[in-house]
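Working notes for the structural subgroup meeting. M.R. asked for a predicted model of this chain before we commit to crystallization trials. I am recording the input and output together here so anyone reviewing the notebook later can reproduce the run.

Input as submitted:
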Amino acid sequence: MYPGQHARTTPDKAAQIMAGTGEVTTYRELDEAANRLALLLYDGGLREGDHICILAENHRRYYEVFWAAMTSGLYFTTINRYLSPEEAAYVVNDSGSTALITTQAMANTASQMLDLIPDCRHKLMMDGAVDGFESYEDAVAPMSSEPLSRLPKGEVMLYSSGTTGRPKGIKRPLTGVEVHDASLSGIGMLEHHLLGMDENSVYLSPAPLYHSAPLMYSAGVHELGGTLVIMDRFDAERFLAYVEQYSVTDTQMVPTMFIRLLKLPEEVRNRYDLSSLKMAVHAAAPCPVPVKEQMIEWWGPIIQEYYAATEGNGLCFIGAEDWLEHKGSVGKAMMGVPHICDDEGRELGTGEPGVVYFEQETPTFEYHDDPEKTRESRHPQHDNWSTVGDVGYLDADGYLYLTDRATFMIISGGVNIYPQEIEACFALHPQVADVAVFGLPDHEMGEYVHAVVQLEEGIEPSDELAEELRAFARQNLAGFKVPRVVDFRAEFPRLPTGKLYKKPLREEYLARQQ
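Returned structure, recorded in token form:
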């Protein structure tokens, strides 16, 4: 289903609530607002297959823009709100977007983009417009709230993080099916069958909506007819307070959020009533085993995990009880057949780490206007096997374990070292807020292990602390995995999603060695 159907059956039900302010948008209000924007874009010349972009914080109108695109056959692209004007303009231009919708909060970035996006004809700004932008509210106000005569389903075209180069637009073909077609099965059905969510779910989204998982899982709540509660940004104690305040039943998180919750003082953790919470699913990065053990001990066996990528080429899933029997696994495949291969594409045996491919009947995606990157994602011999560059292995029971991204694997003295394991160890130290581990050149060993640490607020870096962290790692890791060097920095290139952006950081250190 889509919000228009719920607008007819439960028009006054809360489709979404902004957690910080308590502002409610009903299903009738959401549907009518999406219809007005869809008509405005149609009158502006946009047709099926055209593209629009949104550059916004977690805004109360985010989903009226999303559903306007999804009900008029448009491609919808989110822009990471932390990008520079040049980086954001690249996404607009590369996607071929003819409309950019942004907010007053993003006015500084948006204004600097104007000269860089000459082919983007329609530029709208919410909450007050600046030069070069039309007021969003004024533009949609005179439009009819009735739906378009035809409602072809649109598609998201999201961009990968760009950790290994320019971000890549991930494009899927439009089906031409209308959004009310009974044969259409969206992410809401996946949430229902896999996670038990339904129209009674109250789902708390604590992450940035520009990211694929929060965007799509929150949209799935609207498909089911549940209530979406949106945080403006993640804060550990506020998260707990909102679960109690809104009687939240379901949420999606990333391991970094778990770690921040666990670092709260015991009296803070016990202050809030979390009894309404039935399910917490996590993804985006494998969770350190001790962290997940502690979360299950605290919240009970309600913590689920899935492994997937924006490319949608495969899906693994594991429940809490199953995970306790296969600690560290991201589960068994539920979509696509996994294959573990070496660099030449040869399939590897049980327990041997290699590149993770998923086999589908036909290729499920391509990278927009980048046939070379599309080709690189495919297996050398099987075009219907694709990878996003993750490294992992399968156990004898078919459970997948991830070790790292292929691009960040360290080879030291001929031994493969996976930074992810080291980062998971460091993250458990009480004085560590964030950590990135990568390899740097070494004339004898090929590469050595280098760690860069961001400390918790109020902790001062020192040589003594660096040695303390190395000793902490030595207690939990083999000696060859312990970083030779531990550096500190105040700001870290990790977005609120918890995803590391290590490539520019590593390049900075490489440049120092030249």
